[in-house]
Specification:
Length: about 210
């Protein structure tokens, strides 16, 4: 089995720190995620800047769109995003709108299951609508309350939907192989890389562990 793609969550609000981290981790990661706080703080110009500096990386913009799907996502795809996220809780019309914007730009959509009560039903509906990626995600606040994404990942992977599965929520060296074996096609890592004494070493370790799973 091919190793999953490694997605680095760029969650700093500071552009210089964001670019420095991206440069350090670039040899070991496949996708740069511009995290929700970062994109809200810095705006669409950061998508253009990352696109220019890293023409060969995939860029995910974590918009977590909740309404006006096509309208909100279109300029981000036009600026160079390969993937934008839309919230599963937003509902079918909004998800379909982001899918329309993505398809118009030959790009992809990830539906984020964060706080979705029935994740299996939402994953099925998102796949039916044409979403490309389902994101099993335990957010930072839920992590602080002790939650993890592992059981949800198993439940979504069991569905065998024609989509890729991304997993996020405190993934680190000790859990990257577990989520890879559970069927994650994309492993998102934030704090375990940006909070490490050497982000480059942490990114390399995670990449190597995923390859060996
Ligand atoms: O998406 C995220 C969070 O909701 C803030 O927007 C994080 O980037 C994601 O959870 C990955 O970060 P870690 O959980 O620190 O690995």
């Amino acid at each position: 089995m091919a190793r999953p793609l490694i997605q680095l969550a760029l969650d700093s609000l500071d552009v210089n720190q964001t670019l420095k981290l991206a440069t350090l981790a670039a040899p070991y990661v496949d996708i740069f995620e511009i995290g929700t706080p970062c994109i809200k703080h810095n705006g669409i110009g950061l998508v253009r800047e990352l696109r220019k500096k890293f023409p060969n990386k995939l860029i995910l913009v974590d918009l977590k769109t909740m309404d006006a799907g096509e309208y909100e996502a279109t300029p981000f795809y036009a600026a160079g995003a390969d993937i934008c996220t839309v919230l599963g809780v937003s509902g079918s019309a909004t998800i379909a709108g982001v899918i329309k914007a993505a398809n118009a730009h030959n790009a992809e959509v990830q539906v984020d299951l964060i706080n979705v009560p029935d994740k299996v039903a939402c994953a099925r509906e998102s796949a039916r609508l044409g979403a490309h990626i389902i994101g099993v995600h335990t957010g930072l606040d839920a992590q602080a309350a002790g939650q993890t994404p592992f059981a949800d990942l198993q439940a979504v992977a069991r569905l065998n939907l024609p989509v890729r599965i991304s997993v996020a929520g405190g993934i680190k060296q000790s859990t990257v192989q577990q989520v890879t074996r559970a069927g994650a096609n994309i492993v998102v890592v934030g704090a375990a890389i940006y909070g490490a004494p050497s982000p480059a070493d942490a990114a390399r370790e995670i990449c190597e562990l995923a390859s060996a799973a």
